[in-house]
Amino acid sequence: MRAVLQRVSGAEVVVDGKTVGEIGAGLLVLLGVEDGDTERDLRYLVDKTLNLRIFDDAQGKMNLSVRDVGGSILAVSQFTLLADCRKGRRPGFSHAARPEIGNVWYEGYVAALRQVGMKVATGVFGAAMSVRLSNEGPVTILLDSRADLA
After folding, report:
1. CA nearest neighbour of 94 among 108, 112, 80
2. Is 6 an annotated catalytic residue?
3. Is 59 a catalytic residue?
4. Which residues contact 145 (CB under 8 A, 6 or more apart)?
5. Distance from the Cα of residue 52 to its chain's centroid
6. What angle in degrees, to the nearest 10, is found between the helix axes of 39-51 and 99-115?
7. Which domains are delineated in the chain?
8. Of residues 6, 55, 79, 122, which has the active-site annotation?
9. Prediction pTM value
10. In this structure, are residues 11 and 130 in contact, taking their beta carbons and an 8 Å threshold?
C-alpha cells in the first residue's frame, strides 16, 4: 500500500458538484492499494497515519500527531499512486489492486481509523473526484508499506 499524507488546515472532496467529504485541520490521505497487499500493510499505514509526529508543538517543532492535535482525516482512494512510469511515457497500473480488492482494503483502512475514535471523512471509491486542500507547511509525506517494511 502506498499513501500520501498531507497536513492540511482544511480539505474537501467534490463529486458531481457536491461535497461528499470535508474536514478542517488534520490529514488528507491519498491511499493506493497494491496487488498482494496484506493485513500487515494495512496495520502499518494505519499506525503511521495515527502516530507520525508531523504537527507543530508550542515551540513550532514537528512533534505532535494528528491524534495529539485532535485533527480529522480525509481518506481518498488513489490507485494512480501505484503508477509504474519506468518505461515509456504512459504510466502502467498493473501493480494496482483490482477495484473490488482495492475497495475492501480502502474500507478496511477507514474502519481501522474510525475504530480508534478518529473522525474520518471519505471520497467515493472509483468516482471522478475533485480534491481541494490547503496544505500547511507544506508538509507532504510519502509512505510505501512494502518499501518501509522490507
Report:
1. 80
2. no
3. no
4. 1, 2, 37, 40, 41, 44, 45
5. 13
6. 40
7. 2-149 (3.50.80.10)
8. 79
9. 0.95
10. no
Residue with cell 512533534: 63
Task: Say which of 80, 93, 115, 125 is annotated catalytic.
Answer: 80
Whether a cis peptide bond, with omega within 30° of 0, leads into 99 is no
Kindly tell me if the per-residue pLDDT of 149 is higher than 90.
Answer: no
* pLDDT at residue 150 greater than cutoff 70: no
The fraction of the chain above a pLDDT of 70, given in percent, is 99
- The 10s digit of each residue's pLDDT in 73-95 is 999 999 999 999 999 999 999 99
β-pairing, 72-77 vs 120-122, is parallel
Query: 79 catalytic, yes or no?
Result: yes
Which member of 38, 78, 122, 125 is catalytic? 78
